[in-house]
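Researcher: Last one for today. Full complex below.
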Amino acid sequence: MIWVQLVNGLMEGMMLFLIASGLTLIFGVSRIVNFAHGSLYMLGAFLTYAFVPLIAPGTVAGFFAAVLAAGLVTAVIGTAFEVLALRRIYGRDSLMQLIITVALVFIIRDLVRWIWGPNSLMVPVPDALLGAWVVGETWFPLFPFVIFAAGLVVVVAMIGTIRFTRAGILLRAATDDRGMVALLGSNEKLIFTGVFAAGSFLAGIAGGMAAPYGDVNYLLDTTVIVSAFIVCVIGGMGNLYGALAGAMVVGLTKAVGVMYFPRLSMMLIFLIMAAVLVARSMGRQGGPAR
Amino acid sequence: MRVQILCAASVLALAAGAALAEGEALKVGYVTGLTGACAPISEDGLNGSKLAVADLNAKGGILGRPVELLIRDSQTKPEEGGKQARELAASEGIEMLTGVCSSAVMLAVNEVAKEFKLPHLAMIGSTQKANIEAFNPYFIQTQANATMEARAAAEYVAKKAEWTRIAPMGFDYEWGHTSVEAFTARLKELRPDIEITEPVYMKVGEANMGPYVTAALSSKPDAVFAAVFGGGLVSLIKQGQAFGLFQKSNLVTLLTVDTLQSMGSAMPKDHVYGIARAPFFALEQTPELAAFIEAYRAAYGEYPTDWAINGYDAMMFYAKAATDAGETGGDAVVAAFQTGSFDGLKAKGLKLRGFDGQMDAPAYVGEVNFDPAFPFPTMKNVEKFAGASLMFSEETIQAMRDAAQ
Amino acid sequence: MSLLSNQMSPARWAVLLAAVVGLELANRLTGAGTSLMLAEMLILAIFAASLNLLMSYGHMVSFGHAAFFGLGAYGFTLAVSRAGLPVELALLFGPLLAGFGGLVFGALCVRLTEIYFAMLTLACAQITYTVLFQWYDVTGGDTGITGFMPARFGLSEANFTTLVLVVLAVCLALMARLVASPLGLAIRAVGQDRWRAEALGLAPRRVQLVAFVISAAFAGVAGTLFAAFQGAAFPDYAGLGFTLEALIMVVLGGLHSFWGGVLGAVLFTQLRHWAPVLTGHWGLLLGIVLLIFVIALPHGVAALGARLGLGPKGDRA
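Model: Here's the assembly. Have a good evening.
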């Protein structure tokens, strides 16, 4: 049973990382606490619901194509929001940016309820991914493995982009020191927009990939956003590799915790987050915790 | 589209009312979760109630007065529901409160009912707290409450002689805990030989059920009893298939028509047993029910869910009580509820026990079935458990009230 | 801070007096429904003002202020329902429990700064919420505690609203006095530049902790009144929803202004009250209006008022 729980935990951790990676990237570069990130995730799930029947339904390739399409549309919507609203208030109090993302939460939630209704919707698992590997008495469900593998592909692509491309270099530079990047002549606005688009894309495909596993409903936004924040905090806000570690810690804690502390699993994760934060403050006596 | 149909239907209803009923409008405070976690089922309940209002007004309203629903969105938040109900009671001159979905909102609204001495008809929310420590004489539960439902499930499971080990699981909140506890206690009474494992609880609305299904299946149970509903239940059934839940075990859970519709063809063909409040396909097929199903499908383009039938029944019960009392509100209506006999779509001849405001409404348990007559799974071999057999005795209720003090 | 200093001109006193008289007239003349709406608005104004104290003067951004609203509500409710105290005495336990929560959480949080401070307040609030939600035997779990007292102490709608108005006035007067006091100056100094403040001999963390506890206790006053208003307490009161609403109110009203929280509370509760009356898609309307406000009013409503010469000047923190 512990092995199944490890698989459950890793799969949840991967999903959490896909969500949190976008959140932490955006924070790292633009210092925006994006409360609407969960809404973009939800949008990705609903768009996948809309696209799946249109693109080779039932096939694995068709499903991933639908997820990709949903991610792209989510990225377009995120970009539009960045350009039309967020960009107008860069340089103001960062709380203004936070409130504007909360406004987006209200808007997306209501639009989704308007378009798709309040009921739970189902995205079918591609036929080839139904079922499980049966090892003795234990069932290892197939779909979570595939999601985990697909997540790994995204992670590798993301790390590759950040390490080896010009965009990645700019992104790393901007995370370290925005002002310097601007002084060196790079277009700061373009970097911000690009990061927001990439973050939205990641949220969109995360929502899409998770969609067939459970149900799709218009309350997914709040379900997801708090977990995503926790992951970012455990890993250090703006730290991508930290987020990966944080996501795995949260996913595994939840799955294994249910075996040992069934009543505590809800609180356990917040306790870890609080412990990490308190430890952070101990480690840096006297200096600003960053 | 749906919204337009809905509007058209309510305009028609109002027009019909205006034509036939002459008196001053009889205002009903309808506080329900049109947004938030309750949104999917609240809308169904409201749709059913709207049809009841249309029917009532077509026949001259209640005591000659046209019925008007004052609909407010509780956002599925108790403080918002309490505020909306209080504003309606204080300034709109409502004579009855109904529509509430979530347990917490129901208890908040119940306080308002007590304060303003308004009959409060429960039709979706089902916490037994309202019958026990939070009871007041204005509370009227028109359906089987959560405990009765769980006890019906226990009766059903007890008859499965081949099942010897049951693993309960539930959402980690009041409804989940009371359901699991009531189920466990009743099953132990009926079948002392059955082993019941330690319950597994998960966060309300949890989407990743994998860890919890794994934990529940680890003791190799013959059946899993799940006090889970809505999106979480959909996730449980979908993910359970890949963990062998329906090959290695059976699932007994709340299966209202909305969940059956959401699951559609993704529902396993076998090994799923559902508890329901008012499954239209398993009720006594009366002309009233046939007419309701037809009208509902015409108005909203889908089959009525349990919540829609409950919404219709609640309004009709109120009309009957008010007619019997010759008054539309206050203690007279409550008294009429305690003496009358009520015929609803979900069952006939229902009676209210004034001691805890509970109607002896039945609960239904059956097996999932794919009937080609319907575009979604339904249930077969549905057993009806009479409400009276599921209710705690007055002594037990009193003991629970004392214990809660 | 100008409210109690000699900068408080007669004109501003007149505006303030007019607002109070206007509110009381609306409360008395327009029926019980309006009174209820006003009572909620004024309670949330106390809540928002308590957060504003923390944010505008202490420069501490909390993502978990609802924890203290919730603790206030439960401190009062539990004192009545479980300890059996008379209501008048129990009223003290709301702010007390909230202040105590502020002390415990604050001691952890003030070790951190900026976003990590905010995130730790979020974690503390979620832990509070989970305890209220799951500790069924004491807190009643998700279905809360009801029926422990008549709603509004049995007062009429209008009388209760007047009472809340008085409490709000007292709270604001206390806050104004605090801001103008040496302690208030220390809080502002640490908020603006903790290093310079430390160099001047202040203990930044201790000052921040004091500010945190005071703010939590005022939030507890609001929570206590809210529980009395509803005649009920639910874990929701400590949830993310109330935290976000308070943040919106403070930012909408205007950061770095004494009146920001109150103005924001008035504006936001009115928006939230009327949007569902206008449309079933109130979320969309609310979101769009918020978006426009934030983009159009860079410094909140208080600043707009100041620019038009209406609000108090010279109270920029």
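The radius of gyration of chain B is 21 Å. Confidence is low (pLDDT under 50) at residues 1-20 of chain B.
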